[in-house]
Structures are given as C-alpha cells and as structure tokens.
TrEMBL record:
GO terms for cellular component: cytoplasm. The keyword Plastid does not apply. Ca(2+) binds at D68, D70, S72, F74, E79, D107, D109, D111, K113, E118. InterPro entries: EF-hand-dom_pair, EF_Hand_1_Ca_BS, EF_hand_dom, Parvalbumin. PANTHER family: PARVALBUMIN ALPHA (PTHR11653), PARVALBUMIN, THYMIC (PTHR11653:SF3). The gene is LOC111936032. Residues 55-90 form the EF-hand domain. It comes from Cyanistes caeruleus. It holds the Pfam family EF-hand_7. One of its GO terms (molecular function) is calcium ion binding. This is Parvalbumin. Keywords: Calcium, Metal-binding, Repeat.
Length: 125
C-alpha cells in the first residue's frame, strides 16, 4: 500500500513539473528574445538555444507532457500556436504561418498533430 502512495505522488509531481525544472530560465529568456517578431520563430534554433536539443529522451518526454496541455497524448495545432507561452506567459502566440510550418515539420505521419515520438525526432533533427 505504501508503495502505491509513493507512485501516485510521483506521477502527480510530473504533471505539475515546470519547464524550468528541465531548462534554464536564462536559456529560455535568450531563446524567446530571438523570436519576438512575428514570423521569426524557427523551431530548430529555438530548441537549440533553449537547450532542449541536448536533453535526454526522458527529459524531452517531460517537456512534451508540459506542452500537451489537454493531456491527449498529442500536441495539436492550437497547442502549437501557444507553444512559446509554455516558456513564458508574456511570450507571443505563434502566427498562423509559423504554426502551420511547425506542425508540418513535426507531423511525420500526417494525422494533423504531433505525438511524443514525432516531437523527439523534431527536437533532435
């Protein structure tokens, strides 16, 4: 019984994990400042600047869980549009052009959303 309590506590902790538990606040600030202008977002340079590209598979999965706001197991287009806001509430929404390009880059199976494996591939691309 004790072990079950520990497990559910741990699982609960993961769902409330902050992005700054995995990525440095300073790196996040730098990455966000690089894409303040509309249509300046580039996922490859953002992932690199924020330090996500060098993280472990497990850490990337944890970031995916934060980005998957509705906990559907996928990052859908509306969640992608709000991507930067996961890093700072003051960040801008992605433009329609940026969102569609980001989705097209990550959605390798053509289902209109990005799964965890697709996200990992996108981060490591």
């Amino acid at each position: 019984m004790e072990e079950k309590g520990i497990k559910s506590h741990f699982t609960g902790h993961l769902s409330t994990m902050a992005i700054t538990d995995i990525l440095s606040a300073k790196d996040i600030e730098s990455a966000l400042s690089s894409c303040q202008a509309d249509d300046s977002f580039n996922y490859k340079s953002f992932f690199s600047m924020v330090g996500l590209s060098s993280k472990s598979t497990d850490q990337i999965r944890k970031v995916f869980a934060i980005l998957d706001r509705d906990k559907s197991g996928f990052i859908e287009e509306d969640e992608l549009q709000m991507f930067l806001k996961n890093f700072s509430s003051d960040a801008r929404a992605l433009t329609s052009v940026e969102t569609k390009a980001f989705l097209a880059a990550g959605d390798t199976d053509g289902d209109g959303k990005i799964g965890v494996e697709e996200f990992q591939s996108l981060v490591k691309a």
